[in-house]
Design brief:
The complex is a heterotrimer of chains A (about 80), B (about 575) and C (about 160).
Chain A lengths: L1 E7 L18 E5 L4 E2 H7 L7 E6 L2 E3 L4 E2 L4 E6 L5
Parallel strand pairs in A: 1-7
Antiparallel strand pairs in A: 1-2, 3-6, 4-5, 4-7
Chain B lengths: L5 E6 L4 E6 L2 H7 L2 H12 L13 E4 L14 E6 L6 E6 L3 H7 L4 E5 L6 E6 L2 E6 L8 H12 L4 E4 L2 H4 L7 E3 L3 E3 L4 H7 L2 E7 L9 H16 L2 H8 L4 H8 L21 H5 L4 E3 L9 E6 L2 E4 L3 H6 L9 H14 L3 H17 L11 H12 L5 H4 L3 H8 L7 E2 L2 E2 L9 H9 L28 H18 L9 H12 L5 H21 L11 H5 L14 H15 L9 H6 L3
Parallel strand pairs in B: 1-6, 7-12
Antiparallel strand pairs in B: 1-2, 3-4, 3-6, 4-5, 7-8, 9-10, 9-12, 10-11, 13-14, 14-15, 16-17
Helix pairs in contact in B: 1-2, 2-18, 2-20, 7-19, 12-14, 17-18, 18-20, 18-22
Chain C lengths: L10 H15 L4 E5 L9 H11 L9 E8 L2 E8 L5 H5 L5 E3 L4 E3 L9 H5 L6 E2 L5 E2 L9 H5 L5 E5 L3
Antiparallel strand pairs in C: 1-8, 2-3, 4-5, 6-7
The chains are: A mainly beta (about 80), B alpha+beta (about 575), C alpha+beta (about 160).
Amino acid sequence: MVVVWVRTYGALSSHSIEEGVDKGDGAPVAFPRKRVKVREILARLHIPEEAVAFVAINGVKCTKDAWVTDGDKIAIFPLVAGG
Amino acid sequence: MSYRWEVLRVNLSTGSVAKEPLNKSWTEKYFGGRGLGAKYLYEELEGGIDPLSADNELILATGPFTGTIVPCSGKLAITTKSPATGMILDCSIGGCFAPQLKFAGYDMLIIEGQAEKPVYLSIDNEKVEIHDASHLWSKGIFETESQLHEEHGMGAVVLSIGPAGENLIRFACIGSEYYRQAGRGGIGSVMGSKRLKAVVCSGGKDVTVFDMPRLLELAKKAIREDVLTDTNLWAHVEGTPSIVEMSNSSGVFPTRNYQDGVFAGAQKINADSIQKLRPHKKACFACALGCGNYLCVEDITVEGPEYETLALAGANCGVDDLRAIAKFNADCDDLGMDTISLGNVLGFAMEMTERGMKDFGIRFGDVETYLKMPRLVAYRKGVGKELSRGVKQLAKTYGGAEFAMQVKGLELPGYDPRGSWAMGLAYATASRGGCHMSAWPVADEAFGDLDPFTIEGKAQLVITGQHYNAIKFSLILCDFWALSMDTMSEMVSCVLGREVPTANLEKAGERVWNLLRLFNVREGFKVADDSLPARIFKDPLKSGTPAGRVLPREQFDSMLREYYQLRGWDSEGVPTPEKLKELEM
Amino acid sequence: MKHKVGVDINNKQKDRAVAVMLSREGGGNMKLILDSEKCTGCKLCELACSAKHQGVFNPKKAHLKIIDQYTETGRETRLKSCTLCLKCVETCPVEAITFNGKWLVIDDGLCTGCGDCVDVCPEGVVFLNSEGTAAIPNFCEGNPYCVEWCPHEAIHKEEDVA
């Protein structure tokens, strides 16, 4: 079993059915296996991949095929234009 | 249609106020805003003038979308020659000055000459007057606006400078609605050199478009389906502070004078820390997003801080105290100074002090001294006298040029090119110096799927971005609506009543870009100036995804060569006659 | 000598006051409400109003005004719109403006463009249109356009049901 802390930014939390993913440290999300791909987390939260700019694991950018393990903090960032 | 076909020309040396027709054929090639302002400035100035003399002009330009219901169309383009760089400079300011200028009956305001004593300009539809401003001179922007609202009504919109602009500081800005700025390149000092304290504008005339029902239909649909979407809603939900975590997570967050790209204190100055203060969102005129965060941090009230301030005046100075950054921000807004440049200058000063190369009396994280800096710099007092010269000049005098983070005299903003190589090319080739608003390939590299550490396809990426922004900022649309050129084409066609296909807009974007380059070439800028500070080529980043990385010099040179080639410029970076002919220039 | 008590009122004025009173009792006081926390001050509502009713973009020709400004004490965000005070109805010298129980109605044929209604409106949302007759707010006959356009649902209509 893997429990990760997921935090979404921007308007991405509007897709999610999980409570509390859009504030502070985010919310815990559990998976029944030992390892899970980032892609699966997006699918679980109903976040379309096209809406995601990138994902970071424990503060470092990763790809959508990266594996996450128990206790990891996942940040999901929306597309951004300009700044 | 939409255009008023009228330019207001004010000469502060002679006191004359004149109205003249807007050049129609130029609008067909350059539309408005950035492009049209550049065309007028290029034609009216000679090469080599002193930006702080009576010879310089300030051109305030609206575009065909200004004053209409096209969403995110409320910004103003101000074009001039920069006192910081000697290059062409255009800044974009939000709020609602541009729509008021249009409602007053003018597409553009051109300010020439130099007043003998402080003055301000008032525009109330046809009634345009130059007033004595001795009662306003030396006041901060907040008090100036307040006073002018009392004299001209709350409905009037004010652009003004503060003491920094009056004192001709290299990075003084122009402010409006207290917290919005035309920020970079010392634009406020051009106004200060003309002894023009403020411009106040009220308008009550109609703005019409060719096909009103179709525009209303397009705009309504656009707001629902194209503006308020995942791609743009970050601006409404969090505003630019959302970029703090993105930059930090991808290792491009400028930290302690660009010594690193990951800042330990990022969580204390990120979007969450600002959202906790429950900001009241503020929008520019006609904007469906509303990116402004109006909030209180303890005793400080401010609309901000924006990402760039959190980066350059936060992480880059080793400061993670949100209240301190908010106070720094509010003081700069009032004094009228660019937080990007000042934050960058302080980062340099801190590194020089810590290295023992020159004691500027300030170190990374020294909040107490940091908070004194805006006033010291704006008034050229104490160490502020030296710091007000900008990093390029400071390095010339005291050394440290390898880590004076500037290009052509404009201090670099908030993205480290070692973690996003195309961004390095963007900084080196931007029309106004080290700027992130010419193209923003960080979105595709650091914040996207493109490998940031290759040069494959990056020259084209930057070129496409530069053309896109060039036409966008000429029609005038805000950076934060990531619309397609097809959507721009649909809307401009229905506003103007003539077909403007996407291909025309793309060509216009390239034309504007080449015009900006011609201006700079005439001022003597060439390939050697399209470069980056040595730190980017030599000092590896230490943390995060780009740990161990530099942008290797040979790779940069390769990218630049390809860039000139793709652009049809010669090896000196000068547009060729064939290219100019192709663009009908 | 008999003392004069009260104001001298003629029959026409009396009829008018009675008509106003009766129409108020008819019920249905529509009004616009602004959620000042949600309002960003974008003014898309003002543009939508002037576009729909006057065919132009001009905030001074809108039947609502969003005041969103920074003041000494902070930020002020509020709405000025028709409150059905009926001062324009009472003032109109040719009785061109009437209240139908829900909103205001103007008979353009009667309007002389004198501008008295413009001057008397406490909210400043009555103006003369390009034909020189009065433009009167009427909540878009029940479906306010501004409400449709607001991107953040900051403005909505309320109706008192009699």
